[in-house]
Description:
Elements: H1 2-16, H2 33-46, E1 52-53, E2 59-64, H3 76-85, E3 88-94, H4 102-115, E4 120-123, H5 126-129, H6 133-140, E5 145-150, E6 155-160, H7 169-180, E7 189-192, H8 209-221, E8 226-229, E9 236-240, E10 243-247, E11 255-262, E12 265-272
Amino acid sequence: MEYLKYILYSFIVLAFSSCEYNLIRFGWTDYSVDQRFEDSRRYNEKHPAQNLSIDADEYTFTATSDYHLHTDSVFLPKFFNYINSSQSIFVALNGDLYNSKEEFADFAYSALTNGIKIPAYYTCGNHDEYFGWHLYYDRFGSSTYSFTVTTPNYKDLYIALETGSSTLGRGQYEWLLEILSKRDEYRYCIIITHSNITYQGFQNGTFTQEETVVLFDLFAKNNVNMVISGHSHRENDLTIEGVRYVTTGAMKNGEFGTCYVKNAGVDFKFEDLE
């Protein structure tokens, strides 16, 4: 009996420990990360991510995550007003846009694509995959891609990684190696993704220790400047081997961040809609 109590307790702790929970299909997705990467790669061939060109060497962009939309949201009008009147040249939406169901995915796609008036770059989160990868893919498209921001004197590289199941998989990792092999062509390199690469005190949606070590080493050796994620709903800011790992709070709570890209370096500030 005590053993059964321990098993039940462990399951409850695991199910409630990160993001929002779904006891019916906790952590479930119908496509492996390698299959999702192949879908994204094929999508990129026909619909490459938009590269940006601006007339200043310094600029800002907004980073958000964990909207967890259903079929309404009280924070969206305030967010749309903020983002569309800000100085940000684009917004990154780092996963968990909706809470799993098809009607929620439809609402998220309609609300976000109609409400945001500046370039928007999406990545897939674990909740976006719960009831099927194609709920996300058929609406938002690729979750693995790169794009550039060209200024009068520089070019900056941005890499979006699909980490809804907290691993890159073989195909996406090899693609990342190829992209980073050209790192020297760019002033800065910033990665945007959903799951936290740095450990933040819970088990759901955490990279394995082995993969974490590999990525820490890869990002440091290739002079990645910043990795921006969401998922944990907890603001976090760590620098490891010269790479800054930033986790935004949850957009559903009005929390997000602004990244300042300057000649002197890249900085980040946590923000709140309140």
